[in-house]
Amino acid sequence: MQYDLTEEQILLQNMVRRLAKEKVAPGAGKRDEDAEFDWEMVELMRENGLYGIDFPEAYGGSGAGLLALAITVEELSKVDAACGLLVADHELGSLPILLAANEEQRKRFLPQLASGEHLAAFALTEPAAGSDVARLRCRAKKDGDSYILNGTKNFITNGGVADIVTVYAVTDPEKPTHKNAAVFVVEKGTPGFTVGKKENKMGIRWSDTVELVFEDCRVPAENMLGQEGDGFHVMMKTLDFSRPGVAAQALGIAAGALEYAIAYAKERESFGKAIIEHQGIGFKLADMAMRTEAARQLLYKTCAMMQQLPKDLSRISPEIIRMSSMSKCVCGDVAMWVTTEAVQVLGGYGYIKEYPVERMMRDAKITQIYEGTNEIQRMVIAKTL
Ligand code: COS
Question: Based on the domain organization, do 252 and 374 belong to the same domain?
Fold first, then answer.
């Protein structure tokens, strides 16, 4: 399996790296402090075509694939993890359409998603169903040529800013969710669909995380993706494809913290020499570099494998499911560990908001939690062994 970056991927990487350094990094600390969603960042992603990277060319995307998407999210997350999440979460919200939509639905939704004119969000989690998603309570009741949605979703990234939300619901609460879940595209402004509480978070603070409420929300049956009963499968396959995006965000956070810590350790002096010359710090940085690079190789290989698969509802192999979960778990754990060490390298300065590693350490934590906690990833991996 060849997963060295191609010439186009290197060009993309350089472009996004420059953009991140020049346009994203300067405001990252302030955005974290203000914790307000920043539409200028959305505009920047749109102008540079970053929303359409993994969308087919036939619908206006660039068809560059999952590895190109991962590189993009990594570069953005090196300087601002919430900015990387703009792109990764748009992919997550769009994946159910990419995987399960019919031709009419593709033509209707994909071009505006590929250009970023419309933003997407993914509404799965509920107050009582996060890890155990088979406990979904959101209900979709058939009524003529529509479904009536009732229920609450929480912790929904981009939920308050998205134009379309892919929403999971059960059509018959008496049956097991595995067999009766369905997924719907719910458009902003649909009566009965409202945005509830906005969360005040530890990290990725300016990213939009909200509760979504559906009260007798009538959604046309033509907005259902696949058939009744396909929902659980669409959800699992979406997560298989989206977890590399979280992994890329985590990898970017680790790489950004490592880069900052190395530069600091070369400048900062103690006991008459740069602290990188002290073995205690040099070894720490070596370990940080080793783990970050190992995580990167695992993720890039996973992306290279996964981007060869058709985006449809066909079954994927346990090996691929395992690689996706391993990437997410390894990159998340590495991000948490590397950022904690980066704070330590900076000592007292690492603990202060003026230095970005403090934010990076807070941002890293979510990558061990969302899109399946790292404990869930271990369950998924164990099941495939
Ligand atoms: N990819 C594809 N299919 C999968 C899958 C995966 N990763 N995991 C399970 N499935 C399939 C199984 O093959 C099974 O299919 P059949 O009924 O056709 O045999 C079906 O889904 C049910 O599997 P299982 O019995 O293992 O389901 P569980 O309810 O026990 O759930 C886990 C298993 C833990 C894998 C699931 O609940 C999960 O992924 N939870 C985490 C969800 C999550 O990420 N939440 C965060 C959301 S924020 S975006």
Answer: yes
Instruction: Tell me the sheet residues that pair with 280.
Output: none
1 pLDDT higher than 80: no
Query: What spacing in Å lies between the alpha carbon of 236 and ligand 1's midpoint?
Result: 6
CATH value at residue 210: 2.40.110.10
110 with 55: CB under 8 angstroms? Answer: yes
Tokens (6 digits) for 237: 């396959």
0.85 exceeded by the pTM?
A: yes
Check whether residue 236 and residue 152 sit in a common domain: no
Cα-to-centroid distance, 27 and ligand 1 (Å): 39
pLDDT over threshold 80, residue 34: yes
Tell which residue, 293, 282, 373, 291, has the closest CA to residue 337. 291
Distance 239 CA to ligand 1 centre (A): 9
Looking at the structure, do residues 235 and 319 belong to the same domain, yes or no? yes
Measured at the CA of 12, the angle between CA 7 and CA 15, to 5 degrees, comes to: 125
**Do 235 and 376 have their domain in common?**
yes
Using the atom order of ligand 1, give the atom closest to the CA of residue 370: 48
User: Are residues 290 and 168 both part of a single domain?
Assistant: no
Q: Whose CA is nearest to atom 17 of ligand 1?
A: 178
pLDDT in tens, 90-141: 999 999 999 999 999 999 999 999 999 999 999 999 999 999 998 899 999 9
Which residues are paired to 210 by β-bridges? Answer: 156, 198
CA 84, CA 254: separation in Å to the nearest integer? 13
Is there a catalytic annotation at residue 104?
Answer: no
Residue 181 lies in a domain: yes
Number of domains in the chain: 3
Q: Which domain holds residue 96?
A: 7-115
